[in-house]
Amino acid sequence: MKFTAEQIAGILEGEVVGNPDTEVSTLSKIEEGIEGALTFLANPKYTPYIYTTKASITIVNNTFQPEHAINTTLIKVNDAYKAFSTLLEFYNSAKMNKVGVEQPSFIAESSKHGDNIYIGAFSYIGENVTIGDNVKIYPNTYVGDNVSIGNDTVLFSGAKIYSETVIGNNCVINSGCVIGADGFGFAPNESGEYDKVPQIGNVVLEDFVDIGAGTSIDRATLGSTIIRRGVKLDNQIQIAHNVEVGKNTVIAAQTGIAGSTKIGENCQIGGQVGIVGHITIGNNVKIQAQSGINKSIKDGEILQGSPAFAIGDFSKSYVHFKNLPKIVKQLNEIEKK
């Protein structure tokens, strides 16, 4: 798929400086540009590369004025970084614009779907499934009974969507995700063994939720495990039964959240964070990577450590911890004297 500088400028509402008929068919970093590639310059420290890049077209800010001769055609825009991101979305949409039902695949007769859908080979669509418009379900994907999938949602290869799950509009579920598996519910019996507690709830993903590869979200024991609008989850995250994650919260890889914990809106949670169950985390909370959260957190707190506490206190304490061997040595010398 090829685009000219004039076509790209039209999409970005930019101005072409150079040959408007210059064509590109791929994307690249500015320092790795090749003929036929489109790149961008947003960070000033990469400015020297614009004079040596072999990329055919470069998106730059309106304020950019070359100090030496350049070979690349320029497209000037208000914000080069934002414009390139917009173009990446456009390119990705065009690349992923598959339509139709591939065979072999199984689609239950009781299921319903909207227009312009794609269902890849070896996919399974269960009874009473509802699929919206423009949904893309890539090969080897399982969608259980009574699942609802909103418009413009994408399920990548190997995703497993258990029964009763509700998925909103414009969601992205990456490969290897397991949505709606049983929560970790077991009760000890008189013999010391564990009996399974039936998990009869479901998982609800609201609109614009992105879920990274290998992430698991367990169904509720009763009611719903809920991921609110705009939440972004990284790879290999575990979210247990009856958890609720507030809108626009972002969580990095390998974080684990135990059952029935409620996380507020606009939180930022780093990688490898462990959060105990049955607590409440407020809005606008920031938790640094590898922290352990064992109690409820108020709005706006910034925490680090395991168990976690205020980041300012953590930083001061860490200075003393680093010096602990020296301090112990000094104490020993004082004792000897």
Provide structural commentary.
Keywords: Acyltransferase, Lipid A biosynthesis, Lipid biosynthesis, Lipid metabolism, Repeat, Transferase. Homotrimer. The protein is α/β, with parallel strands linked by helices and 337 residues long. It has 2 domains: 3-95, MurE/MurF, N-terminal domain (Udp-n-acetylmuramoylalanyl-d-glutamate--2,6- Diaminopimelate Ligase, Chain: A, domain 1), CATH 3.40.1390.10; 101-314, 3 Solenoid (UDP N-Acetylglucosamine Acyltransferase, domain 1), CATH 2.160.10. Helices cover 15% and strands 30% of the residues. It contains 4 helices and 40 strands. The strands form 6 sheets. It has a 12-stranded mixed β-sheet with strand order 8-11-14-17-20-25-28-31-34-37-39-40. A 10-stranded parallel β-sheet has the order 9-12-15-18-21-26-29-32-35-38, with no helix packed on it. A 9-stranded parallel β-sheet has the order 10-13-16-19-24-27-30-33-36, with no helix packed on it. A hairpin with a 5-residue loop joins β22 and β23. The longest helix is centred in the N-terminal third of the chain and has 16 residues, at 80-95. The radius of gyration is 26 Å and the shape is flat.
